Amino acid sequence: MSQVPAALDVVAATLASGAALCAWRSCRWLERHEQAAERAVRGEAPATVEPTAGVGPTVSLLVPARDEARNVEGVIAGMLAQRQPPIEALVLDDGSTDGTAELAERAFASDAAGRGRLLRGEPLPAGWGGKNYACHQLARAARGEWLLFLDADTRLAPGGVARALAAARSADAEFVSFLPRYRGEHWTNRLAVPWLYYFLTALVPLPEVRSTRSPRLSVANGQAILVRREAYDRIGGHAAVRDHVVEDVSLAIAAKAAGVSLALLDGRRWLDCTMYEDTRGFVRGFAKSFHSAARRYPGQWLGLSVLLLLVGFWPWARLGAGQTGAWALLPPVALAAVTTTWAALLRRFGQAREALFCWPATLGLLLLISLAGGLAGIAGRPLDWRGRAVGGSGAS
């Protein structure tokens, strides 16, 4: 038996088993802080929100929106459903052409308390990414002690903000992002998008993200980022990552470098997200992220691609390849580890069960998108995203 394939069998089985252990530890971490937050919200633990200094909101809910007509009313409804703590809700219309601004104004008009308003975005300056400049403007207008940045395709359940603050307090973190529950009828939302749970729990040791000071071990999910205002200013805000497309990870790295405590926590019980409405949007969205990751963090992008190839596809190629003895067990061990981990994550996060039975195909599709988008990024070829070029000589 050739030594190289045998060595790769060992590596694949080791990586798949290690990812399974990492996912188990990460989920225990998530569960601990989720339960602590629930106890605090029910009044079974110390108060989760510090008294507000003076008059004003405790949390500013901030949504950048560019051509989000299908989402903006829903995200505003979720924000205005919050009763405690005191909030303000701000949506910034970033040059939309689909009626986003009009729909947002109508949604805010329904709130008798006047807790929300629409901001009109300024022209995008040179050297800035669109989302980053929108978030920069939102933060500049916000008055809260905490800032909660939300993507327009998210939905807050009543009590969600209180739970987010309680979870941040439980983790003793000033910069917290959250994993939502992914929803949506399109096949990409049901079968492919949930791989984000695997990437962010099985490939990242979440307890160590909080306990390790090294900025190299940083992760964030930009769909929901809660940060204390003082910590945000200490980081330098979105201006510190103005030209980054994968701004959530870059902001997390900047946070750790500035000495800000960091955590990724579970928000699936109070935060939903429907990412895509068609296959084209899914491909372009993931390609944009991999494109920027390859340009900004080429080592990490290459490592992820190789890891997915080894744990997701090498064992399939090696089944029945003539191994003998204990060597023949390595490919089935690797596949069993990936399948078991994937099944457990789907169940924990309330995802579609059919995603389990097509995982080689969906993971293969993500790997192809990673390679295509990443190689385009390394080559300096820009991608179009909502009418703006990313990569190339522009923001990455």
Q: What this model shows, in words?
A:
This protein has 396 residues and is an alpha/beta fold. It folds into two domains: 3-22 and 280-379, no CATH class; 28-190 and 203-278, Spore Coat Polysaccharide Biosynthesis Protein SpsA, Chain A, CATH 3.90.550.10. The chain has 15 helices and twelve strands. β2 (87-93), α3 (100-109) and β3 form a beta-alpha-beta unit. α1 (3-41) crosses α5 (160-171) and α9 packs across α10 (247-257). The model is unreliable at 51-55 (pLDDT under 50).
Assembly category: single chain
**Ends: how far apart?**
45 Å
One letter per element, helices H and strands E, the order comes to HEHEHEHEEHEEHHHEHHEEHHHHHEE
Shape: globular
- Describe the strand arrangement of the main beta sheet, using strand numbers: 3-2-1-4-8-6-9
Q: Output the CATH homologous superfamily of the largest domain.
A: Spore Coat Polysaccharide Biosynthesis Protein SpsA, Chain A
Count structural domains. Answer: 2
Provide the β-strand percentage band.
5-15%
The CATH class of the largest domain is Alpha Beta
Low-confidence stretches: 51-55
The number of helical segments is 15
CATH topology of the largest domain: Spore Coat Polysaccharide Biosynthesis Protein SpsA, Chain A
Tell me the CATH architecture of the largest domain: Alpha-Beta Complex
